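HUMAN: Spend a minute on the protein record below and explain its fold to me.
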Amino acid sequence: MAVGKDYKDREVIYFVSDRKEGKGGLDIWYTTYDAKRNTYKAPRNCGSKVNSVGDEFTPFINPRNRKLFFSSNGHAGYGQLDVFEASGERSKWSEPVNMGNSINTGSDELYYVESEKGGSGFFVSNRKGTYTANNSSCCDDLFYFVDT
């Protein structure tokens, strides 16, 4: 789950669900806070640019630039779950862009988050040769990154 703001400065919650109206397996959905009624509006799908026939996981919305980062096995990538980014909000997004091989490998990469100022952050991967995985891809490890 991720919390952000839309262009009207309303709170928006992005979350993952396998609701019947989805595009594939697990999709990213959103709900917007209605301050007048002190409640959240009915959930809506983030649309077919973000959601694929596969699964989308671990949304993160950057509050600085409203970029959505998420993991997917339904968009073209390097391996199983890759991290992607898309610009926009709610159900209007640009085509997702793969974060490239500085983040993604042939294994799973997910839970991508950026620091408040940008340029650095964390993600999780089960890539081979790491501390807990040794030479297998059994386990998830936490990675820190800095843009160069």
Summary: The mean pLDDT is 91.
